[in-house]
Amino acid sequence: MSENYFLMPEELKALLAWHRWLNGDDGDRGGNRGDRARLRRAEMPEDILLTDAFFHFLRQMPDGFPQKVASEQRLQVAATIAGLLAHVEANDASGRFATQLGAAKDKAKPPMSELRFQQLQKSPTVDDFYRRMLRAIRLLGKTANVVSLTNDVIHWHKEFNQPLGRHLDVSKRLAVRWATDYFTALPKN
Questions:
Q1: Which SS3 state, helix, strand or coil, does residue 143 take?
Q2: What are phi and psi of 165, to 5 degrees?
Q3: Which of 50, 52, 53, 186 could bond to 35 as cystine, CB 3.0-4.6 Å?
Q4: Distance of alpha carbon 114 from alpha carbon 82, whole angstroms
């Protein structure tokens, strides 16, 4: 499966440009600090919807972002993406998000414990998912794969909003892909 499986090419380009702008990596050291701060202060995706920083984000994305999400879910998914990416200070495209959670860098333990990883996978609400994703980003030292994280957020929301049974191919479920990535990356003891 391609790394940008839910993002259209124009969405991918705009998202990466926005993330660089937000972190001042594009040479513009001005107005992005305020947007980043407002997005970081929001505790839940619903709070993000009420900020001008979110509408700045939407203006920089292609119309109908994210396009592969049902129109009635787009604002909530976009708010989740904007809020989480405001916490990612460095884009590390070296591995998928769940792989990064399981890969030990300089120590024998992965950034996220198996228990926390399982809790993340079983998030029962949008707010719980958001809180646990924030914790995951912090455990990664605010460095994560922006594209993978965005695709995973879209994937999670698509599954969360589908009635049970519509996603029959278990191997294509986010939890299965995440488990494969995470447990494969764990240090061998």
A1: strand
A2: 95, -15
A3: 53
A4: 26
Non-local (6+) Cβ contacts of 36 within 8 A are 22, 23, 53, 86
Find residue 144's DSSP bridge partners: 91
- 3-class state of residue 46 by DSSP: helix
Spell out the per-residue pLDDT of the chain, length 189, in tens: 455 589 999 999 999 999 999 988 766 555 488 999 999 999 999 999 999 999 999 999 999 999 999 899 999 999 999 999 999 999 999 999 999 999 987 767 899 999 999 999 999 999 999 999 999 999 999 999 999 999 999 999 999 988 655 555 777 889 999 999 999 999 876
The H-or-E segment that residue 27 falls in is none
Question: What CA–CA distance (Å, rounded) separates 26 from 15?
Answer: 13
